[in-house]
Amino acid sequence: MTMRFLGDTAVLTGRSLRHITRSLDTIFTTTITPIAMMLLFVYVLGGAIRTGSDSYVTYLLPGILLITIASGIAYTSFRLFMDMKSGIFERLRSMPIARSSVLWAHVLTSLVANLLSVVVVVLVALLIGFRSSAGLPAWLAVTGILLLFTLALTWLAVIPGLSAKSIDGASAFSYPLIFLPVISSAFVPTDTMPGPVRAFAEHQPVTSIVNAIRALLTQQPVGTDIWIALAWCVGILVVTFGLAMNVYRRKIT
Amino acid sequence: MTTQQVPAIQVRGLEKSYEDLRVLRGVDFEVARGSVFALLGSNGAGKTTTMRILATLLKADAGTAAVNGFDVATHPANVRESLSLTGQFAAVDEILSGRENLVLVARLRHLDRPGEIADELLERFSLTDAAARKVSTYSGGMRRRLDIAMSLVGDPPVIFLDEPTTGLDPQGRIEVWQAVRQLADQGTTVLLTTQYLDEAEHLADRIAILHEGRIIVNGTLAELKRLLPPARIERVEKQPTLEDVFLSLVGR
Ligand SMILES: Nc1ncnc2c1ncn2[C@@H]1O[C@H](COP(=O)(O)OP(=O)(O)O)[C@@H](O)[C@H]1O
Ligand SMILES: [Mg+2]
């Protein structure tokens, strides 16, 4: 049964990866907004922002990467919705394949697609002056956090993908996610914000994740941020995975 | 289990409601192994609902159904091994090529040599020339043929075709009819639904009419034609069509 699950998931992941390689424009569409924001903040607003670090683009990059992922996961909803609408989903359901392979294939594809988008954004950041002296372990830790964050949000994206009535409904949920980083430490230090806003900013998941990645990239001590960040990611993952599987189970019975 | 003696499909007292709407109110029929059975009914009669229950995609409220001797409620995995469903709307992957679609299904059915199986089916459904093209460039008839070809991967003993020709132009329709006849010739059991009486007339060994939640008649074409009220004396020799039978039975 496990072998069959792995085999079926691999076959279906191969299928949706082909969708990605045949429409690479989705990768560019995903990265265009974060790149535009990065350029805007670095070249227009950045001069007026005091972050206490030498390079604003280095300060900014972690938040931009999270925005990239938050907009990238909308494609998982989109692809899942299209499978439901086109009847592929029904066809797969009436075939003797491991039942959750269909979802896992979309989730694994999302990890690959978002990793690609993140690489594109990092390359652009390097072009405009981002530098990091972080070694391999720190980069691996950053990649791990980003993958975990992608995984958590992808399972969230599965829910509207399975239950939306229209294509717009399937991707609309991601808009608020893209703005969450704005009220966090992603663009400016939180200590410049007024009381209630600051309280929100300091206690929402994005801030701890941004701080942890920033510390890793600038070789600062990560402190407790990394544990808070991991706790948020795992917590969100457990909840979204549980909800998505629940919706899926109701859909297939 | 000896599955050779039992009918390919057995349906008894099947009931299904969507909230207040009682779609199936006790549907009974059997489909003999190797035959083509047409479920005829107007739009909304419950044909798709019946097929979805048989394909384990939907649970019945009451009654039993078995495919290839396996109960759909208690042995869904065996049922899924035994049948292939071609839904009312072509379920093909538009972004992949025709060949890739077939290879995908062959891999998911855990068959050896998926490439060879794909090439064979492409040939059989006259899709070899279009094999490498993205499905989004296919015509309606080609898409439907690919859809049916995908259902045939692995030679399942029972095939369901839900309104296989709805929305096709006459040429596409003829192509699909040929495909169904080929299936019948090689001994596959085919359950098809249709709103077109002539389609049932052309393809099916037996025809059942689903009306107001029940099977109101079930027989061969000749038997159905005999059900026509005899009071009909015409000077011009005219064979009653299935349409006449249908209209007289549903009382319109
Ligand atoms: N998921 C559903 N929820 C509510 N009503 C449905 C659903 N699916 C089908 N129906 C209704 O059930 C009736 C039978 O539908 P269906 O089985 O699709 O008929 P057919 O395939 O014969 O056209 C129709 O009136 C249809 O509107
Ligand atoms: Mg229907």
Description:
The complex is a heterodimer of chains A (253) and B (252). Chain A has one domain. Helices cover 77% and strands 0% of the residues of chain A. Chain A contains 12 helices and no strands. Chain B has a domain at 9-89 and 157-230: P-loop containing nucleotide triphosphate hydrolases (Rossmann fold, 3-Layer(aba) Sandwich). In chain B, the strands form 2 sheets. In chain B, strands 6-7-8-3-9-10 form a 6-stranded mixed beta sheet, with helices on both faces. In chain B, strands 2-1-4-5 form a 4-stranded antiparallel beta sheet, covered by helices on one side. Chain B has 252 residues and is an alpha/beta fold. Chain A binds chain B through residues 4, 7-8, 11-12, 15, 18-19, 22-23, 86-88, 90-97, 253, and chain B through 55-57, 59, 77, 80-81, 83-85, 87, 89-96, 100, 104-105, 107-110, 150. Chain B: Keywords: Antibiotic resistance, ATP-binding, Nucleotide-binding, Transport. Chain B: GO terms for molecular function: ATP binding; ATP hydrolysis activity.
